[in-house]
């Protein structure tokens, strides 16, 4: 089962300790074979909408910084519970904030 784990932006400024702990966590997930991809997201974004034959492209940002998704990890795990446990461990590393987990369907 694949899950997209997203983290919302916070006011916290990362320090060397956070980078070291996150690096260790990423290495562990990679070695376990569950981490498929990870990265940070530019808060600006681009919105593409369609209505009939009309396509509209609008530059962002679209939400307040604290509401925007700032980063993600795509994981492949055996169960939803395992995804939740990874998210719990992630929150312990990065501290206060909010993460969202969504199952990814498809091959």
Automatic annotation (TrEMBL):
Coiled-coil parts of chain: none
Pfam families: YCII
PANTHER family, per the entry: BLL7171 PROTEIN-RELATED
Residue ranges of every copy of the YCII-related domain listed in the record: 1-91
Name used for this protein in its record: YCII-related domain-containing protein
InterPro entries assigned to the protein according to its UniProt record, in alphabetical order: Dimeric_a/b-barrel, YCII
Sequence similarity: Belongs to the YciI family.
Signal peptide segment: none
């Amino acid at each position: 089962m694949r899950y997209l784990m997203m983290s919302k932006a916070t006011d916290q400024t990362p320090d060397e300790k956070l980078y070291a702990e996150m690096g260790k966590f990423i290495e562990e997930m990679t070695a376990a074979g569950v981490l498929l991809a990870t990265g940070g997201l530019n808060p600006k974004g681009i919105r593409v909408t369609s209505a009939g034959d009309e396509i509209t492209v609008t530059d962002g940002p679209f939400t307040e910084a604290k509401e925007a998704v700032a980063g993600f990890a795509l994981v492949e795990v055996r169960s939803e519970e395992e995804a939740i446990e990874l998210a719990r461990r992630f929150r312990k590393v990065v501290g206060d904030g909010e993460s969202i987990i969504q199952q990814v369907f498809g091959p």
